[in-house]
Specification:
Elements lengths: L1 H18 L1 H5 L4 H4 L1 H11 L13 E3 L16 E6 L5 E9 L8 H30 L21 E7 L31 E4 L5 H5 L4 H10 L3 H7 L3 H4 L8 H17 L4 H12 L3 H10 L2 H106 L4 H8 L3 H14 L5 H12 L1
Parallel strand pairs: 3-4, 4-5
Antiparallel strand pairs: 1-2, 2-3
Length: 448
């Protein structure tokens, strides 16, 4: 029965942690998200008399209204509206710095938040004023900017930086220190400071003096080792009835913070589940006794062995990585060589193509010259043929003029009788002043 009960609690706790995984990474945000813890924090650690009597019901979380300003790195920041009387409220900006590295621009981030809050407050009051004026429209009251009125005032804003790092906070606390030439332009530069709550400025005894849920959470966030946790287990008065009247949702939150702490200490999961069971049952003395039973030297030895194993695996990975890098360099070299050969082959191919085109051009030129030579030869042959025919015509005409008949001329010159007869007839038509060239041209027309 006890085992089944523990399993149900274990599963419930795991479900809560799975649903609230962000708390494991930054459990300190819980301080400002929960109104009870936020009220305890303001009463115990912010030395402003007006806030000493603040109640959880006076605190309203308005972070959602300013989400446009938040980045993934600032997702732990919160904005609260705190009622101080029936009509007035102040705003609380909480910037949670859980890293060991200091954010030196935190003052400018606070200024952006403050300006955004004041602008939003002005819009809210403007909307309220417009609604009232619409109700009194019958009285012909004019609408106008509510912030333009002499009696309009903006609400105060309390900026707080909650720093969990063990080192010193070295960022500037004043806006003008972030602006150069501020000594010359001091009167023109808006200035403010912020409340710095550095967790490690408080001793364990100072935190335990308050004996509330907030003190326990801050202690858990402060602890860095199991030895630190065993140190507070010796304080009997602090652990007595510590969670007796604590609301269940705060028990869950303390369980989440404790889980984050024990995970950082590499505690086995079964021991973490046992601790969570004791927290759920509000058994604080048994819880601290459980911490005392933890074998720190053994756990450290196991951690050292695990670290040695991890280092060996890391060394093997580094060797494999270097081998892969060498292979990658060799492959890159081969790839570059192949690329160079490819480029050389491409260059030779282009050169061969150029030579081929040049040879083609020379062949075309030779073909043209050959055609020209053939044309010249044909022209010369034609001229020679014409000259030979003119000589024949001239001999026929000369012999015909001397009285030789056409048949005798044909036999003598060994030419066709019909051809000679036609030439003689043309010569007779031309008369005694015939021209051999003229006779040849007329004979050529007749013969073609």
């Amino acid at each position: 029965m006890r085992k089944n009960k523990r399993i149900r609690r274990k599963n419930s706790t795991k479900n809560i942690l799975a649903h609230n995984k962000k708390y494991q990474d930054n459990s300190s945000r819980l301080v400002f998200e929960d109104p009870i813890l936020c009220a305890q924090f303001l009463r115990d650690y912010v030395k402003i008399p007006m806030l000493q009597s603040v109640r959880p019901e006076d605190i309203e979380d308005v972070t959602e209204r300013y989400l446009p300003l938040f980045t993934s790195e600032r997702e732990a920041d919160t904005v609260k509206r705190i009622k101080i009387d029936n009509e007035k409220a102040i705003f609380l900006i909480s910037l949670i710095e859980h890293k060991t590295k200091v954010d030196y621009n935190v003052i400018m981030k606070l200024l952006r938040y403050m300006c955004y809050i004041w602008e939003d407050f002005e819009k809210e009051k403007q909307a309220e004023s417009d609604r009232k004026k619409e109700e009194e429209e019958a009285k012909h009251r004019e609408k106008g900017s509510v912030s333009a009125h002499k009696d309009f005032k903006y609400p105060p804003i309390l900026p707080i930086v909650y720093f969990e790092g063990s080192g010193k906070w070295t960022a500037v606390r004043s806006l003008k220190q972030r602006i150069y030439l501020s000594d010359i332009f001091e009167q023109y530069i808006p200035d403010f400071t912020y409340e710095l709550i550095r967790l490690h400025d408080y001793s364990n005894d100072q935190l335990m003096e308050h004996s509330d849920e907030m003190s326990l959470i801050m202690l858990l966030n402060k602890l860095q080792s199991m030895a630190d946790l065993q140190g507070i287990s010796q304080v009997q008065e602090y652990k007595k009835d510590l969670l007796k009247d604590t609301p269940q949702h705060l028990i869950d939150i303390i369980g989440m913070v404790t889980t984050a702490l024990l995970n950082r200490m590499s505690l086995p999961q079964d021991e973490i589940d046992e601790v969570l069971d004791l927290i759920k049952e509000r058994k604080m003395p048994e819880l601290f006794e459980c911490f005392e039973k933890v074998d720190v030297p053994k756990m450290r030895e196991e951690i050292r062995a695990e670290k040695s194993k991890v280092q060996e695996e890391r060394r093997q990975i580094q060797v494999a990585r270097r081998q892969m890098q060498a292979e990658r360099r060799q492959m890159q070299s081969e790839k570059e060589q192949m690329q160079s050969e490819k480029e050389q082959m491409q260059s030779e191919k282009e050169q061969m193509q150029s030579e081929k085109e040049q040879m083609q051009a020379e062949k075309q030129q030779l073909q043209t010259e050959k055609q020209q030579l053939q044309n010249q030869r044909e022209e010369l042959r034609t001229k020679e043929e014409a000259l030979r025919e003119i000589i024949i015509v001239d001999n026929v005409c000369r012999m015909f003029s001397e009285g030789c008949p056409a048949d005798m001329i044909g036999k003598f010159l060994k030419e066709d009788d019909k051809k000679v007869s036609i030439i003689c007839r043309i010569a007779a038509e031309c008369g005694q002043d015939y021209d051999a060239q003229v006779v040849w041209e007329k004979w050529k027309k007749i013969s073609t």
